[in-house]
From TrEMBL:
This is Pellino FHA domain-containing protein. GO terms for biological process: protein polyubiquitination; regulation of Toll signaling pathway. InterPro entries: Pellino_fam (IPR006800), Pellino_FHA (IPR048334). One of its GO terms (molecular function) is ubiquitin protein ligase activity. The lineage of its organism: Eukaryota, Metazoa, Chordata, Craniata, Vertebrata. Pfam families: Pellino_FHA. Residues 88-110 are annotated as: Disordered. Residues 1-110 form the Pellino FHA domain.
Length: 110
């Protein structure tokens, strides 16, 4: 909210299809016996996430490009990868006693 306007506002975001889809989808799942084995699965050309379930089991999920899905990032930062910046007023929308305090960020959207 602009400084001085401390009223509670509902926000709307219009999402439109991107010119080129940037989504990903799971492509392969690998179940490994040791976390060290996951290093052999990782590839520079492909995104992957590894989950260590126990000392003896790691799951690596590889992802590939999805031409039918657009992804949007919502966060607290104003950096360029963030599509929508979300902030909160001080005190959760209540009138702030000290106007010099900047609005806080909403950590649950990070």
């Amino acid at each position: 909210l602009p400084s001085g306007d401390r009223g509670r506002r509902k926000s709307r975001f219009a999402l439109y299809r991107r010119a080129k889809a940037n989504g990903v989808k799971p492509s392969a799942v690998h179940i490994l016996n040791t976390p060290q084995d996951s290093k052999a699965i990782h590839s520079r050309g492909q995104h992957s996430i590894s989950f260590t379930l126990s000392r003896n089991q790691t799951v690596v999920v590889e992802y590939c490009h999805d031409n039918n899905t657009d992804m949007f990032q919502i966060g607290r930062s104003t950096e360029s990868p963030i599509d929508f910046v979300v902030t909160d007023t001080s005190g959760g929308g209540k009138e702030c006693e000290d106007p010099s305090i900047a609005p806080s960020t909403i950590s649950r959207f990070a």
